[in-house]
Design brief:
Chains A, B: In the C-terminal section; belongs to the class-I pyridoxal-phosphate-dependent aminotransferase family. The structure is a homodimer of 468-residue chains. Chain A is of the alpha/beta class and 468 residues long. Chain A is 44% helix and 13% strand. Chain A has 18 helices and 14 strands. In chain A, helix 13 links the parallel strand 8 and strand 9. The longest helix of chain A has 27 residues.
């Protein structure tokens, strides 16, 4: 958004200059003690008058953010300026800022409807199996209730994960698997392990919006390639890796978030060939694996865990309350990751891992997943049909999973619709929250399991009618 | 350790050169694509012959770590070189390397004796209350079992923590408290929030050894001040903050790990005055709070949470298996920390927080802690007396807690004793693992709750006898 667009009056022009300086301090391009741009230079940069910049600088002095040294200029105050994640990266409309969307989903009351969130309603989760698992845990040996986990994590769960990987063609041994607190912590550890400040990371466009927030926290440069119904656009992929030499590519391959697309074997092959050529490490986030009806290709299976790191968790199908994720990778990388996990989380706990194991080894989980997949298929069909009636066209018909990526009627901006719906206590997920290039303003992600209440479509219908 | 000491033969000289290069690559002073020092220059640096360096470089070429460009020199290969935490910072004896000590404690079998570990035996923990709490959880509403936590974390637990803080003179409101997965994750989030690469952090010498590992993961410069029986040596503190201008000071104030010392009000006042003068932010880790017999001064209480951030967890007194820590700080900092927590851990889970709350609100926990404190006092007296018989003198008589910091008979090196004991399946914690300056080789930290088995003293006695 240009300065001209925000600065409609003198007051907002001053605010825009103040905000630009604050942002530079937040993202550390101006550090404590460093000199601000001269009034004249910054007026030129911001395309405002010098008196606007003087006014803005004086207000920042009054706030103690900067200090003036007569005859010398303005300097960033020596005071503590902690990392402000929300101010790193481009300033986005709140409704499409990844952090804001996460907070809305996590914060809103149980009374809110959340077709924009990324999880199933509690009543869809295996609560009976969880209760049974907790009762079993209440009878477990003392150490399970009180001790830290071992560095790699609870061995029986790692054995079980290794067997499940085998079913998907990924040859992982239990010693090559490390448990993490969650899928997000797994990616975070991998970013710490592989990235240096300023390294470039490649993501899909669109992709899971929290990847953007996480990569901001690592101060990585982010680049993206368009996602197609069979995986990343391979020509764009070739161009981007050649030009930007990203250190990592973070993706979902089985069921892509937010589109529900599935990688084809041909694209998998070509992605891996380019990864070899440009020495790219791939993080394959397989968090939706258990939703699959028919197994899709995994990059980790094609590659044999050479340059692909495979991660997952149980938060989508078992419980997000009991945190437990995992990383499978080359053995020497797992060694380094264990050190990092101990240093930053001291090994983690046993309780969640024991609970997850109790539930997974119970025959009931497989049956639960069968029921769940059938239920999601029905919800997918019904949501698709109801969205079409409102003029919202699915980008593709997902084979499985909970997400439907829908295109709004021409000319509508999903951020406007999302803001409108929030007033009705309906949390939506506008497309640009998922899009680095901000090219998905006509799209919206719908979680079909959260779309079974008529009020979702009533609210959507009203918001669309108001703007067409 | 000088090169001369390791390089006793030609073979080990080559190995030392290889290791020095690998270390520079690991700590990123040599990045992929960068040129290695010339053979002649590096021979001078390492005080070896040029043919030794040529030999070492050739072996590294064979391993693919570096590549030779004829006529131009040697370059670090473009290949992936992930962060090797163990190789950042000085090369330490394995027995005093913080990561190695953590791994030994976490990995060793239940059959091992662990007077060096930092936690209570499972049988000392409130297992009946935990079992009761788990059964209550098995009857909880669905959302508690399946949903993500809210951004700040489970409100009733935050209210309870705020009340407990009040008892220690810290005025915190529930909205100024954020739950974290653990005490370690809390410090990790604070490091992300406050530090930039290369910032300096001040710790006590000795201090909890994992602070060193955690700060390495953040690539911070670490400086330290000696700890006295009443807090940090205030003259050294003044000198170090003036010279190094650290961004953070990380400390325990109530019961200091590893010494069991307690901050005096006078030292608290002076530390805070210096912190004001040099704009230092303090992280006060109060993880041992519940072990206190009489309340000691808290920096956060003196300071009113202005520049002190106060953290804690329940892993030492309730359960390390159910992960749950917390951060209390200025409201605007909590806002930024919530964003970071969502980005890097997606809010965390509810299960551990609900379980901790179930246990804490039960009257049984207070009673359990009374029993535990009495039991620790007895173990402290008994361990002290048995150590004295072996010639190990406590540095001070701790008022409370589980740690006793003991000085070995003159001339003994704690790392040697620790290595010796490990062969007997006894895990000890040698002093230098806690000491940045490596000046605590005569000291050892004893966890008195893990010292009730005769074999601990038999092993210690044998190891000491062998070396005197």
């Amino acid at each position: 958004m240009g300065v001209a667009a925000i600065a409609e009056s003198g007051g907002t022009r001053v605010a825009a200059v103040m905000s630009a300086i604050r942002q530079r301090i937040a993202n550390r391009s101006l550090t404590p003690g460093s000199k601000l741009p001269s009034v004249r230079a910054f007026a030129a940069t911001m395309q405002v008058s010098t008196s606007t910049v003087v006014d803005a600088y004086e207000r920042l002095v009054a706030e103690g953010v900067i200090a003036s040294r007569p005859g010398s200029g303005f300097y960033v105050s020596g005071q503590v300026v902690p990392l402000a994640l929300a101010e790193i990266g481009p300033r986005l409309d709140r409704a499409v800022d990844p952090l804001w969307v996460s907070r809305q989903s996590l914060e809103s009351s149980d009374a809110a409807l959340k077709p924009g969130c990324g999880w199933l309603p509690p009543s869809w989760m295996p609560e009976a199996a969880l209760r049974k698992g907790l009762r079993a845990l209440a009878r477990a040996e003392d150490a399970a209730l009180t001790d830290y986990g071992t560095p790699l994590g609870f061995p029986p769960l790692r054995q079980l994960i290794a067997r499940r990987m085998m079913e998907r063609g990924i040859e992982a041994s239990p010693d090559g698997i490390m448990l993490a607190e969650s899928d997000t912590q797994a990616i975070d550890l991998l970013c710490r392990f592989f990235l240096e400040t300023g390294d470039t990371v490649l993501v899909d466009d669109p992709c899971y919006f929290n990847f953007h927030a996480l990569l901001r926290a690592h101060r990585a440069k982010i680049v993206s390639v368009p996602y197609t119904p069979t995986g990343p656009d391979i020509e764009a992929f070739a161009r981007v890796v050649a030009e930007h030499r990203p250190r990592l590519y973070i993706t979902n391959s089985a069921i892509h978030n937010p589109t529900g697309a599935v990688l084809s074997p041909v694209v998998a092959h070509r992605v891996l060939k380019l990864a070899d050529q440009f020495d790219l490490t791939i993080v394959e986030d397989d968090i939706f694996a258990d939703f699959e009806l028919t197994p899709a290709p995994r990059l980790a299976a094609f590659d044999g865990l050479s340059r692909v790191v495979h991660i997952g968790s149980f938060s989508k199908t078992l419980s997000a309350s009991a945190r437990c994720g995992f990383i499978t990778a080359r053995r020497e990388w797992i060694e380094g990751l264990v050190d990092l996990k101990i240093a930053t989380a001291f090994g983690g706990g046993r309780l969640s891992a024991e609970l997850v194991y109790n539930v997974l080894r119970d025959g009931g989980y497989r049956k639960h997943m069968e029921t769940l997949r059938a239920r999601l298929s029905r919800a997918m069909a019904e949501t698709g049909s109801r969205l079409r009636k409102l003029g919202i066209e699915p980008w593709l018909e997902p084979q499985s999973g909970m997400f439907l990526w829908g295109r709004l009627p021409a000319g509508l901006d999903a951020a406007d619709i999302a803001r409108e719906a929030l007033a009705d206590n309906v949390v939506l997920a506008p497309g640009n929250a998922f899009s680095l290039s901000q090219s998905a303003q006509e799209f919206m992600r719908f979680n079909v399991s959260q779309c079974l209440d008529d009020r979702v479509f009533q609210t959507l219908g009203r918001a669309i009618a108001k703007r067409t």
